[in-house]
Structure formats: C-alpha cells, structure tokens
Amino acid sequence: MVPSIVIIVDIKCIMINKKILISIVGPTAIGKTALSIKLAQHFNTEIISADSRQFYKEMSIGTAVPFKEELNAAPHHFIQNKSIEDYYNVGDFERDAISELKQLHKKNPIAIMVGGSGLYVKAVTKGLDYFPAVDDEIRTQLNEELENNGLTKLQNKLKDLDSETYNTIAIDNPQRVIRALEICIGTGKPYSSFLTNPEKNREFKTISIGLNAERSIIYDRINQRVDLMMDNGLLDEVKSLIPYKHLNALNTVGYKELFKYFEGDWTLNFAISEIKKNTRRFAKRQLTWFRKDETIEWFDFKTDFKDIVTYINSQIN
C-alpha cells in the first residue's frame, strides 16, 4: 500500500506545477457535453464552453444548450452569457476565455474546455492568426451583395477563390463568409493561406481529446437530436425570435429553416428535413477542421471513461 500512496502524492505534486487545459472536440451530437461533465467532476474543476452558438441567452433548444441538470452537475462558463443583439466575435472570446482560464487555474491546475466551434477552440489553445488590413469598402460591397442577391452567390464566390476555406468554415454564417471573402479580395490571396502563423505561447498545456464515430452513427444521432429539439419546443422558440431574424446570430442551422416555414416558403416537414441535412453538413465540416490538428487524440464515442482518464493522466505526467 505504501508505494501506491507515494505514487498518488507524486502525481498531485506534478499536477500542481502544471496548468492544464483539457479540450474536448468533435462533431455535433457526439457526446462532448457528457464527457466534459464527467471530466469536470473527476478533476473537481470547471468547464469553459467554446460553442459559439451557445453564448446567446435567447437561443437554448436549437443550440443544444446543456440541460439544467447538466449545468448544475459542474460549473460552466460562456453559456447564455450574451444577447443576440450583442456584437461578440472570436477575438472577444479569445480575450475573455484566456482571462477566465487564469482565474480558474488559480483554484485548480486543471480546467476543461468543450465545443465544436473549431475557430473558437483554436483561438484559446493556439491563438488567432494574423490577417492584413483590407479596405472597409470591400466589406460594405459584400454586405450589399448579401442583401441584394442572398448568401448563395457569396458562398459560390468563396468556393471559387478559396475552396479550402469553403469546405471548413461555417458556410451558412454570412459573417464568416464575408470575412473570408474580404481577405481573398483585399489581398489577392486565399484566406486559408494566412492560417499558418506561429502558435501563441500559452501559460497552460493543452490536452486535446476528440470524440468520433462512424458517419452513419453520427448522422443518426443528429437526426434523433433534431427530433428531440422539436419535441422540446424548438418551433415555439423560433417563433418567439421572428422579430430578430435579421440578426446574424439567428442566421444559423435550426433557426433559419424554421423561419422559412413561418414565412410560408416551406412546409414544416421539409424545414425539419433541412435542419437535419444542414446539421449533417455542419458535422462534416467540423471533422474536416479538427482532423487537421495532429495534437488531437481521437476516441470512439463509446470509449470507456477510465481509458480516457488514463490517457489524460499520461499526458499530464
């Protein structure tokens, strides 16, 4: 018994001298929230959400905000802390999340981050890339094109100028599409060519855990989640947000499709099928993004929790 006690003490001493961020990533509906809560309870620590859709307090069901019981199971940060009328971008999140992590690490050397928004995860773990300044008039013109001709034409333009970015960003998000296009047009180079800056030095070590499954399983879980959202009142949630549908935060999967239903353009069944289809496409883009990161250790979503903890401990030590 004595040797095992000595080992435990040594591990704790090592952990105290290191600041650790356990980052949990993967496609939507794969089980990231459940794993993050288990890890937070295991290490007696807190969770930072890097899901950019869950920042907004008016959006709950359609963004799969953790249930009340889940939020109570471990302290969470950056969930429903903003209004859809607030302007909040990835740079703001990087600043706020790093500041929050400094406070969390004063209480516990280990913190958890979970989310499927790849750019937001990267902002915290590696820092944002540098992009040269471009003429503001380009953004103005692109916004006018969006208003006059719709998002599809801008998406096609990005596909022609930078297919790599087209296949990895949230292509249904007008703000992301316009940001990529203004860099392409303003510099004459692909947006993706600027995603090569050296990583920022962080005061913590990141241990990245990825959850995955066969594509058919992911798609089936997505379909089930959408059905559950509808059962839980997504239609009423979207209806209450109709006066704000022009806001960028609401131009997202699960909301824009049901706005089409309320506008009389689509039947309800077709709108639901489009939510499922667009969510599947989103999951595919998430995996494309995360698979570029060779530091992520991938686990099947059914992996025993003890095996994941064993891997994390091996990386801490």
UniProtKB/TrEMBL annotation:
Domain of life per record: Bacteria
Keyword Transferase: yes
Uppermost EC category: transferase
Binding site for substrate: T28, A29, I30, G31, K32, T33
Enzymatic reactions: adenosine(37) in tRNA + dimethylallyl diphosphate = N(6)-dimethylallyladenosine(37) in tRNA + diphosphate
Molecular function as annotated in GO: ATP binding; tRNA dimethylallyltransferase activity
Secretion signal, residue range per the UniProt entry: none
Gene3D superfamilies given in the database record: 1.10.20.140, P-loop containing nucleotide triphosphate hydrolases (3.40.50.300)
UniProtKB keywords: ATP-binding, Magnesium, Nucleotide-binding, Transferase, tRNA processing
Positions bearing the site annotation: Interaction with substrate tRNA: S117, R139
EC number: 2.5.1.75
Residue span of region Interaction with substrate tRNA: 51-54, 175-179
InterPro entries on file: Dimethylallyltransferase (IPR039657), IPT (IPR018022), P-loop_NTPase (IPR027417)
Cofactor (UniProt): Mg(2+)
GO biological process per UniProt: tRNA modification
Pfam families, sorted: IPPT
Binding annotation for ATP: G26, P27, T28, A29, I30, G31, K32, T33
Residue stretches spanning the membrane: none
Family assignment from sequence similarity: Belongs to the IPP transferase family.
Record's function text: Catalyzes the transfer of a dimethylallyl group onto the adenine at position 37 in tRNAs that read codons beginning with uridine, leading to the formation of N6-(dimethylallyl)adenosine (i(6)A).
Subunit structure and binding partners: Monomer.
Protein's name according to its UniProt entry: tRNA dimethylallyltransferase
Lineage, uppermost ranks: Bacteria, Pseudomonadati, Bacteroidota, Flavobacteriia, Flavobacteriales
